[in-house]
């Protein structure tokens, strides 16, 4: 086996001295990473064998002493923790109410604070309020409309899709999804609809996707274990499609903000 390099030997001796100093001076014994030290000792012992055995044995002996010191340290700290709580309680009982109130106010950090509300979030909130105001109080939904599940007049009122450009938007979106499905066999639902910069565009995409699925151009696949919904190509068969079902997916501004945050 190769001889022990001088720098390795000095490094081990320095770590042993550190452990001894901590034990002698009763310092915090948890400042030493014992797990890392043991890994190093194992590596050096396998590489240098008997030539480093004396240092290895000395290090192990000091590690054992350090573990004992850690146990004693924990016992002492737990006792002090109990005494600290008792002392704090006694201090509170003796302190005047005004002093307690002033200490509380100095340490109080409210959950909602003006620094937490950025200009970006304020703009998003204003956009949401503006979009919400344009919603009809009782939107009409009927199967006789061209959109199937959603009234086209409702979409026009919302300001998302006009009557004339609906088919154009649907065709463009279908091409976009088809391009993605050429690269991947399936797309996660939120990846297919989300627009990081525009909440209304996200809603628009969701409506277009819903229409493509109801037409039979696309299909959905549910992974119950991952709790995810995927968009896949619709398999064209000679027989009539079976196992038709409805699926409600909640899309709201708060969910969009959360998803955009994950994307960013």
Describe this structure in words.
A hairpin with a 4-residue loop joins strand 2 (218-223) and strand 3 (228-233). This protein is 61% helix and 6% strand. It is mainly alpha-helical and 264 residues long. The chain folds into 2 domains: 6-107, no CATH class; 119-263, no CATH class. The longest helix is centred in the first third of the chain and has 42 residues, at 53-94.
Describe the secondary structure blueprint for this structure.
Elements (H helix, E strand, L loop, with lengths): L5 H20 L8 H15 L4 H42 L2 H11 L11 H15 L18 H7 L7 H18 L2 E3 H5 L5 H17 L2 E6 L4 E6 L19 H11 L1
Antiparallel strand pairs: 1-3, 2-3
Structural descriptors:
264 residues, 2 domains, three-stranded antiparallel beta sheet, 6% strand
In short:
The chain is built from ten helices and three strands. With 264 residues, the protein is mainly α.
Rg for CA atoms? 33 Å
Percent of residues in beta strands? 5-15%
| H/I helix tally | 10
Strand order of the biggest β-sheet: 1-3-2
Approximately how much helix is present in the residues? Answer: 55-70%
Quote the distance from N terminus to C terminus.
Answer: 53 Å
Task: List the domain count as a whole number.
Answer: 2
Count of DSSP E strands? 3
- Structural class call reads mainly alpha
């Amino acid at each position: 086996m190769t001889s022990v390099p001088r720098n390795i030997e000095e490094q081990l001796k320095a770590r042993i001295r550190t452990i001894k100093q901590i034990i002698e001076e009763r310092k915090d014994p948890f400042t030493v990473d014992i797990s890392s030290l043991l890994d190093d000792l194992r590596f050096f012992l396998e590489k240098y064998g008997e030539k480093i055995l004396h240092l290895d044995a000395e290090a192990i002996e000091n590690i054992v002493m350090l573990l004992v010191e850690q146990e004693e340290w924990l016992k002492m700290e737990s006792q002090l923790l109990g005494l600290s709580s008792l002392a704090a309680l006694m201090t509170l009982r003796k302190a005047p109410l005004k002093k307690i109130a002033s200490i509380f106010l100095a340490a109080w950090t409210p959950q909602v604070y003006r620094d937490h509300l950025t200009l970006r979030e304020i703009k998003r909130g204003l956009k949401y309020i503006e979009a919400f105001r344009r919603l009809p109080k009782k939107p009409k939904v009927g199967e006789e409309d061209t959109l199937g599940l959603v009234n086209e007049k409702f979409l026009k009122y919302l300001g998302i899709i006009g009557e004339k450009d609906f088919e154009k938007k649907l065709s463009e979106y279908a091409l976009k999804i088809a391009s993605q499905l050429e690269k991947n066999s399936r797309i996660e639902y939120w990846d297919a609809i989300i627009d990081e910069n525009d909440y209304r565009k996200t809603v628009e995409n969701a409506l277009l996707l819903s229409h493509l699925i109801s037409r039979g151009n696309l299909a959905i696949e549910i992974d119950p274990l991952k709790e995810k919904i995927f968009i896949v190509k619709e398999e064209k068969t000679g027989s009539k499609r079976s196992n038709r079902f409805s699926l409600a997916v909640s899309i709201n501004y708060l969910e969009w903000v959360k998803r955009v945050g994950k994307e960013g």
